[in-house]
Amino acid sequence: MANIIPGLIKIRITYLLLLLCFSSYAQELTDTIPVITPELELQPDSILLRQMEASQDTIAEKEPRQKTVLEAPITYNAEDSILVSLDGKKVFLYKGATVNYQTIELKADYIELDLQTKEVYAEGVPDSADVVQGTPVFKDGSEEFESKTLRYNFETQKGIITDVKTQQGDGYVHSDRTKKIDAESFILKRGKYTTCDADHPHFYLRMTKAKVISNKKIITGPAYLVLEDFPIYFPMIPFGFFPNSPSYSSGIIIPTYGEEQNRGFFLREGGYYWAASQYFDLTVKGDIYSKGSWGSNLHTNYKKRYKFSGSFDFRYNVNRYSDPGLPDFSRSPGFSVQWSHSQDAKANPFQTFSANVNLSTTSYDKQNSNDVQSYLQTTKSSSISYSKKWENSPFNMSSSFRHSQNSRDSTISLSFPELTFSMSKIYPFKQKGRIGAAKWYEKIGFSYTGNIKNSITAHEEEILKKSLITDWRNGWKHSIPISLPNFNLFKYINVSPSISYSERWYTNYIEQSYAYDHIAEEGTLWLDTIYAFKRNYNYSFSLSSQTNIYGMYQIKNPNSRVKAIRHKMSPSVSLSYNPDFTDPKYGFWDTYIDENGKEVAYNRFRDGIFGSATGRESGSINFGLTNNLEAKVAAKSDTITSDEDKFEKVKIIDNLGFSGSYNLIADSLNLSNIRISGRTTIKGVNLNFGGTLDPYATDLNGNKINKYMWNESSGLSKLGRLTNANLSFGMSFKSKKEENKEEGEGDNVEQIVHPDGYIEYYDFDIPWDFRFDYSLSYSKRSPYHDAQINQSLNFSGRLNLTREWNMSLTTNFDVQAREFSFTTFNVNRRLHCWNMSFNFVPFGQRKSYSFTINASSAMLKDLKIDKQRSWFDNR
Predict the structure, then answer these.
(1) CA-CA distance, 123 to 135, in Å (whole number)?
(2) How far apart are CA 470 and CA 459, in angstroms?
(3) Residues 6 or more apart from 327 whose CB is under 8 A from it?
(4) In this structure, what are the phi and psi dihedrals at residue 827, rounded to the nearest 5 degrees?
(5) Quick one: pLDDT at residue 24?
(6) pLDDT value at residue 35
(7) Long-range CB pairs of 151-157, under 8 A, 24+ apart, other chains included
(8) 533 vs 102, 299, 335, 614, 660, CA distance in Å?
(9) What's the pLDDT score for residue 5?
(10) What is the pLDDT of residue 549?
(11) How far apart are CA 347 and CA 29, in angstroms?
(12) Residue 134: its pLDDT value, please?
C-alpha cells in the first residue's frame, strides 16, 4: 500500500501537469487573434491530430485534406470570447464580434467563420429579457445594411440575408429574405422601398419582386403603395425604375398628368435632364394640352468653386382657349426669364458682379402662376450690376441694368446703361503731419458723384418698337456737395452750413409755341424737340441747426408705480436759398404767347431724366419738431439685483412730429402744408397715424386762396384743413406656453402606452395664433368736395390641433365694398416622412381647391394621391 500511494500521487501530478499544459494551450488559442494569409495553413497540435485520426473511420482517412487559400488576410475580434474548432477550420466569435476582409466589415454578437468554405454566418443573441441584441451589420465600402441573420461567401460574394434593411441613396430597402448574387446586386421578393428611415416605415412601395444594383438603380415588378399599413391597390404600378446613383446623372423626367376644363387633358413638366459636367447642368421640359395649349422650359444651374454660382430659367407658354372662329376664342403667348448670379466674396475684393433678373409678360403671370404669391404680385424688378473699387484711392465705379414692371397697367421701365462714378469725401486743405488743432479751412471737404442714365417707360407690347434716339431719355448728372465746418451756437445748438452744386448734360431740349397758321392745326400748342448738347445746372446754400430739449416731471404720490415722466423734444430749423433760374441769362426757361395774348413760361428741360434747375427764386425756412414721451415705472419683478432693475422705461409716445417750410421770397402762399406723423404702443398694440394740414382756406371752387385758416374758421379747423390722414394698427394673440414643463408632467399632458410598450406623451395645450390688421385712409381736397375713405381688415390665423395637424386661414375684408377679397384656407397633416395637405380658395377669380397625399422626399415627389380643381377652370 505504501508503494501504491506514491504511484497514485505521481499519476495525479502527471495528469494535472498535462491538464495544465492543455489549458495553457487552449487559453493561448482563445486569447490570440490569428491573421490568416494565403500562405498560412492552420495545423492542429500533433497529439490532438493523432487522436482525431484514430477516431476517424477508414474512408475518412483516405480523403485528402484541402488547403485553405484566401485572397487577402482575415482579421477578427470579439469582446467576450473567441473559440477555434479542433480541426482549425471554424472560428466562433461572441459578443461585439468583428470580421474584416478586404473592404468588408461585419459586426454582430455572434459570428461563425468557416475558413475552409470561406463562408461566414452572423446573427444576434437574445439578452436576459429575450430581446435580440447585436444583429448583423454588414459594410462593404460605402454600402451598409443591417439584418436579422446573414450567411455570406467571401469567394463567390453571394449570400442569403433575412430581415434586411439597407440604405440606397435617399431611400431605404426592406426585405424579409434577400439573395445577394454578386458584389453589387441583390434579388428580393415582397420587398419595401421607402424614404422613411423608421424601422417600421410609415409608408412604402410594396414590391412583389425587385432587383437592386447598388449605387446604380432599383428595378421592380408590379408594386403598390402602402400608407400606415393600409394597402392602396389602385393605381398599381406595373413596373418601376428608381435611379440610385451617388452622383447626379442624365435621364428622362416623367411628366405629370391631369385634366383642366379649359385647356383639356395635359402632360406637364416632362423632359430630359442633362448632367453636363461638375460645373453646370441643363433641364429641358415641356407641357402639352389636348385643346392646343403648350409650354416649354429651359433651366440650368452653374457653379465654379470660389468664383461664382447661379441659375438661369426661361419659360415660354401659349395658352389657347375655345376653338378658332368662336366668339370666346383667345390665344395668348407669354414668357418668363429668371436669372440669379452671385460672386464669391473671396474671388475679388475690389470688383463684384451680380444679377437678379425677374422678367415676364403680364399674360404669363396671370395665366400660368400656380402659387398665390406669384398671382398677387403686381410689381417686379431686376438688376444686373458690376462694381469696381480702386485700391488705396477714394474712387469707385458701378454700372447696372435695371428693369421694373407693373402688371396692373402692363408698363415696363428699362434703364440701360446706368453708370455711377463717385469719389468719397476729401479734404484738400488739410495739412499732412499737422501738430495741434486743425484750422477751420482744413475741415472744408467735398465729394463727387457722376450718374449716366438711359431709360424708357412704355407698355410691354410697344417697348421694342420705340426709337433709341427719340423715345429713350438719357443724360449725365454731376453732383458736388461741399461741407463746411460745423460750429455750436450758444453751446447747445449744433449748426451745419453746406453748399451743393449739380450739373446735368442733355442731348436735347424742347421749344414750345402757339400755332396760328400753317405750322400746325390752328389753336393748338406746338412742341418741338431740338437735338443738341445743353447744360442745365443749379446751386444752393443751406444752414441747418438742431438741438435736444429734455423735461422731467416727478410724480409725488408714493403709492403710484409711475415715478416720473420724461419728455424729449428735438427741434430742427434750416435755411436754404435757391437763385431764380428762370432768368433768361441761364437759358433754362423760355416763354410763348398763348391765344389770349398772355405770356406763358415753360421749362426747356422739363422732360429731362435728371430733372431741371428749380424755378423761381426761393429762400425758405424748413422747420420740424419731434417728441418722445416715456414713463419711469417701478418694476413688478421680485428678483431685483441692482438699482437699475428697480425701474422700467415705458414708452408713451414713441415718435410724434410735424414738419413744414416757409418761403421767404414768394409773394403768396408762403407756408407749405404741415405734415404730422406719430406712432405709439398701447398694451402691445402698435398704432401708426399721420396726416396733412393745409393752412390756407379755399374759394367756392375749391382753389386755395392766400388766407390762413386760423383767420377764417374756429375750433380745431383753425389749425388747418385736414386734406388726408391715415391710421393703422394691428393685434396678435397667441396661446400661452407653459415654461419649465417636464415631459410627462403637467395638468394637460396625457401619457399614451402603445401595444409594443412605446410610451408617448400628448400635450393638449393647443398652440394657436391669430392676428388682425386695420387700416384707414382719408382724403378730402376741399370743403366742397366729397371725402374719400378706404378701410380694410386683414385676418390671419393658425391652429395646431396636435403636433402634426395644423390649420391656417388668411383673408381680407374691404369695409367700403362690404366683401371679402382673396381668401385661403389650408389644412396640413405631417407625419415624419409623408404629408397631407388641403388648400381651399372659396371664392374669387382664384377659386380652387387641392387635396394631396405625398412623400416628403423629393426623390418620390411623383408618388402621391392628388385631387384638385384648378383655378384655370374658372374662365
Answers:
(1) 5
(2) 16
(3) none
(4) -130, 130
(5) 40
(6) 38
(7) 151/119, 151/120, 151/121, 152/106, 152/119, 152/120, 152/121, 152/180, 153/117, 153/118, 153/119, 154/70, 154/71, 154/101, 154/104, 154/118, 154/119, 154/120, 155/71, 155/118, 157/182, 157/183
(8) 83, 45, 39, 20, 38
(9) 37
(10) 93
(11) 63
(12) 92
In angstroms, rounded to a whole number, what is the distance separating the alpha carbons of residues 663 and 143?
A: 83
| Helix, strand or coil, per DSSP, at residue 447 | strand
Q: Give the separation between CA 81 and CA 92, rounded to whole angstroms.
A: 8
In the block, residue with C-alpha cell 406763358? 600
Q: What is the pLDDT of residue 516?
A: 58
Q: Is 114 exposed, middle or buried (0-12, 13-18, 19+ CB in 10 A)?
A: middle
DSSP run (H or E) holding 866: strand 864-869
Residues 6 or more apart whose CB falls under 8 angstroms from that of 63 comprise none
295 vs 364: CA distance, rounded Å: 11
C-alpha cell at 771: 392676428
Q: Residue 396: its pLDDT value, please? A: 94
C-alpha cell at 854: 405625398
Whether residue 828 contacts residue 837, with contact meaning beta carbons closer than 8 Å, is answered with yes
Residue 76 CA, chain-centre distance (Å), reads: 50
The pTM (predicted TM-score) of the whole model is 0.62
Residues of the chain with pLDDT under 70: 1-71, 169, 235, 244-248, 369-377, 515-523, 637-645, 737-765, 858-859, 861-862, 872-875
3-state DSSP assignment of residue 520: coil
**Residues 700, 701, 702, 708, CA torsion sign:** negative
Instruction: Give the three-state DSSP class for 631.
Output: strand
pLDDT at 643: 56
Nearest one of 301, 318, 297, 321 to 309, comparing CA atoms: 301
Question: What is the distance between the alpha carbons of residues 98 and 107, in angstroms, rounded to a whole number?
Answer: 5
Contacts of residue 150, Cβ cutoff 8 Å, sequence gap at least 6: 106, 108, 120, 121, 122, 123, 136, 138, 159, 160, 161, 162
Which residues partner with 825 through β-bridges? 809, 840
| pLDDT at residue number 23 | 41
